[in-house]
Structure formats: structure tokens, C-alpha cells
């Protein structure tokens, strides 16, 4: 007597479908549009992006601002130091890393870089950045407010003025440096806080201006 | 009856691995229509200019100038030079500044360490770039070429192949002074 399907159990099981790759999160930014407006106000502005190069961002800034854009991927420097176990050396490294002249930049994009730096490295970098800004220039950054272990870097892709897409890439784990708002303000001595918004993701977006 | 000893007829494809041999012409610079190509084994030190589209798969150090044409740096291309062209497509490596009157396009395997000046810039995901990008009005115009190369020496087109001919005059590749003495450098 035939037993339909009797050998089915012997057949190799099909591999379970792979879980879908997590979609890039799109976040709404309340501060970034103001950063763009501040930079657009300058004639032939110069931007400094501290994140990895993103082609679509280059196009966005080129079309929107017709600017000169410096790309200095400090995340890769942080990761290189972390892999060598030399995070403590970042403060000294940042003292000479950026070659831009003082008062030469109209807009600086820090993204969430300061979450990955210890206080000393953050202080040194912030002082360098504040000195680079021209009068009326703007600096955009986001600062996490929860002390968690960071295992991923965020590559920010500008979708529109108020929409940012976050793409994750693996990072050498590190505890986030949580800075109080007053510490952040002190760190960027010489700049004033033009906007500061706490997002639902417990991230504080901040826009600094040089008076 | 099986004709085991019968020699394989030339031109008949075989299943075994195929080995490509260098062409007997010995030249790594070829002109295919209006596009010149600098082959993998060519090393050029000095100033390279052309009035036709050019693909570089070899190594160039110094300055590359194709004001009215498209320059493609192929996947094997290694450039340490200031580059001026109408449009530049980067699939290989460039160390130096790139100025284009129309567009710079860095493809996903491309790598640029230097400054870009062009009205339009495209950088693919996965491409490496470090430097500045100038897309302001007038970027890439010839006036910007003041930052041209540092090593504008006479052209020395070198080939790893002994006896290989260098820049073909028909391609209009390089304005090499007659006194330029080629010094052969082993390349990859």
C-alpha cells in the first residue's frame, strides 16, 4: 500500500527564510532644517562633514547649497584607534588631525561622533571645531542621553531637510559617553546653543551658532 | 579510431584553462576608435595630455590633462597626479586633486585621496573618498587649474615589456619632448 508522503521526513528541510534585514531607520529631525537654513544664508558656504562620505549627501548639499564640502571621516579614525586599543590617544590625535584653518568653515556636521569619544578627546575636538567656524557659522550634532554600550556606528543619509536615514555599521563596542547639556555647552566654548531638541530616541539634537 | 594522437586544431575551443598571452605587437597603448587606453603594465611619470577620451589601467604620476574629453581610471589604474578633464570616472585609485568641467564620478570600487572640483560629483556607495568637494559656481573651470601639478616633468612613458613602443603619436596621448629619455621601471 502506498503511503503518500512517507519519505517526506527524510528530505532535507528547507532552510528557514532569513530574517529580513532591518530597514534603515528614517528619523525626523527638527534641528537639521535650521542647520541648512543657517548655512544657506552664507554666500558660497563651506561645509565640514565628520562622517563617512555619502554620495547622496554630496549631491544634496551640492544642489541645495552649492557649497564646498570637506569630508573628514573621523569615525574611521575612532574605529582604527579602538581596534588598536588606543582610544586614550584620540585626544592627542584630534589636536592635529584636522587641517582646516581657523574661521574657514560655515557649517560643521558632527552627527553623533561625540557619543564615541571620551571626555578628553571630546573637549579637544570641540575646541578645534569651534575655532574653525566662521562668524555666523553653524554646527550640528546629536548626543545620546543614555549610558549604553554602542556596537554600531550610524551613517546618516540626508533624505530631505527634515528626514535623515540612519544606516548602521558595526563598531568596536564602547560605552557611550553621556554628557549633560551644560557640559556640552561648556565643551563648545565660544559658540551659543541656537536649538536643542530631545527626541523620543533619547537623543538630543543640538545646533550651535558662532555669534 | 578514437584519433587520440590527433593534434588539437587551432581555433577549436577546448575545455581546459585558457592562458592569454601578450600580444606580439608589444604596445600597451592602443587606440580603439576615439578612446585611447593605457595598459596595465604602463608607468608614466610626467605630464600626460590628450585630445581624445582616455582609459588608464596603468600607473601615472605627475599631471593628466584632457580638457575636452572623458578620462576613465580603470579598476587597475593607479594615479598619483593632478587630473584635469571634462569628465572623470574613477574605478581605480587616485592620489591627487581632480578638476572636471562637467562631472566627477567615483564608482563603488573607486578610491580618491584628494580634492574634487566639478559642478557635479557622484560618489557611489562603497567608494572611498577623503578630501574636499567644490561644487560652487565656477568649480572645475580652467581658471581653477592654478593648483595644477607639482611634478610637471617631461613625459616618460614606460613599459615593462622590453622593446615596447611608448606613446603612439596617432593617439595624441602625450606631448613628449624628443629629449625625454625613457627609464624602464619594472611594474606589476
What order do the helices and strands come in, and which of them pair?
The complex is a heterodimer of chains A (211) and B (188).
Chain A: E1 25-28, H1 32-40, E2 46-49, H2 55-65, E3 68-71, H3 74-83, H4 90-97, E4 105-111, H5 119-132, E5 133-144, E6 149-160, E7 163-175, H6 181-187, E8 192-198, E9 203-209
Parallel strand pairs in A: 2-3, 2-4, 4-5
Antiparallel strand pairs in A: 1-7, 5-9, 6-7, 8-9
Helix pairs in contact in A: 4-5
Chain B: E1 29-32, E2 35-38, E3 42-49, E4 53-56, E5 59-73, E6 78-90, E7 93-95, E8 98-106, E9 111-113, E10 116-117, E11 120-123, E12 128-134, E13 156-159
Parallel strand pairs in B: 2-4, 3-5, 4-5, 5-6, 6-7, 6-8, 7-9, 8-10, 8-11, 9-12, 10-12
Antiparallel strand pairs in B: 1-2, 3-13
What gross morphology of chain A would you assign?
A: globular
The number of E-state strands of chain A comes to 9
Total discrete domains of chain A: 1
- Sheet-strand content of chain B, in percent, reads 35-45%
Question: How do the strands line up in the largest sheet of chain B?
Answer: 6-7-9-12-10-8
Largest sheet of chain B: 6 strands, parallel, barrel
The beta-strand count of chain B equals: 13
Shape of chain B: globular
Q: Specify which chain pair forms the largest interface.
A: A-B, 16 and 19 residues
Count of helix runs of chain B:
0
Amino acid at each position: 500500500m502506498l503511503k503518500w508522503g512517507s519519505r517526506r521526513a527524510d528530505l532535507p528541510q528547507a532552510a528557514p527564510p532569513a530574517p529580513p534585514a532591518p530597514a534603515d531607520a528614517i528619523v525626523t529631525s527638527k534641528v537639521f532644517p535650521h542647520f541648512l537654513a543657517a548655512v544657506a544664508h552664507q554666500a558660497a558656504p563651506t561645509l565640514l562633514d565628520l562622517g563617512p562620505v555619502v554620495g547622496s549627501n554630496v549631491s544634496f548639499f551640492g544642489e541645495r547649497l552649492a557649497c564646498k564640502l570637506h569630508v573628514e571621516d573621523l569615525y574611521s579614525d575612532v574605529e582604527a584607534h579602538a581596534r588598536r586599543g588606543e582610544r586614550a590617544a584620540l585626544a592627542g590625535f584630534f589636536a592635529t588631525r584636522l587641517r582646516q584653518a581657523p574661521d574657514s568653515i560655515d557649517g560643521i556636521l558632527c552627527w553623533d561622533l561625540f557619543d564615541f569619544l571620551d571626555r578628553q578627546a571630546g573637549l579637544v575636538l570641540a575646541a578645534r571645531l569651534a575655532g574653525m567656524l566662521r562668524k555666523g557659522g553653524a554646527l550640528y550634532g546629536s548626543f545620546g542621553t543614555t549610558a549604553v554600550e554602542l556596537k554600531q556606528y550610524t551613517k546618516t543619509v540626508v533624505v530631505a531637510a527634515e528626514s535623515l536615514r540612519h544606516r548602521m555599521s558595526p563598531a568596536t563596542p564602547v560605552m557611550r559617553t553621556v554628557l549633560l547639556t551644560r557640559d556640552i555647552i561648556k565643551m563648545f566654548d565660544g559658540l551659543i546653543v541656537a536649538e536643542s531638541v530631545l527626541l523620543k530616541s533619547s537623543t538630543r539634537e543640538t545646533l550651535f551658532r558662532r555669534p | 579510431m578514437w584519433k587520440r594522437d590527433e593534434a588539437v586544431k587551432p581555433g577549436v575551443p577546448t575545455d581546459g584553462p585558457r592562458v592569454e598571452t601578450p600580444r606580439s605587437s608589444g604596445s600597451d597603448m592602443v587606440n580603439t576608435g576615439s578612446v585611447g587606453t593605457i595598459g596595465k603594465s604602463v608607468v608614466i611619470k610626467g605630464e600626460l595630455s590628450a585630445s581624445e577620451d582616455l582609459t588608464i589601467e596603468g600607473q601615472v604620476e605627475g599631471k593628466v590633462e584632457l580638457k575636452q574629453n572623458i578620462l576613465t581610471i580603470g579598476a587597475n589604474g593607479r594615479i598619483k597626479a593632478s587630473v584635469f578633464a571634462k569628465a572623470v570616472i574613477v574605478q581605480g585609485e587616485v592620489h591627487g586633486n581632480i578638476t572636471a568641467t562637467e562631472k566627477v564620478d567615483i564608482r563603488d570600487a573607486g578610491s580618491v585621496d584628494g580634492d574634487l572640483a566639478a559642478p557635479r560629483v557622484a560618489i557611489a556607495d562603497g567608494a572611498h573618498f577623503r578630501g574636499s568637494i567644490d561644487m560652487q559656481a565656477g568649480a572645475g573651470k580652467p581658471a581653477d587649474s592654478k593648483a595644477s601639478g607639482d611634478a610637471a616633468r617631461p613625459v616618460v612613458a614606460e613599459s615593462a615589456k622590453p622593446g615596447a613602443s611608448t606613446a603612439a603619436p596617432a593617439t595624441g596621448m602625450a606631448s613628449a619632448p624628443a629629449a625625454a629619455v625613457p627609464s624602464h621601471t619594472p611594474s606589476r
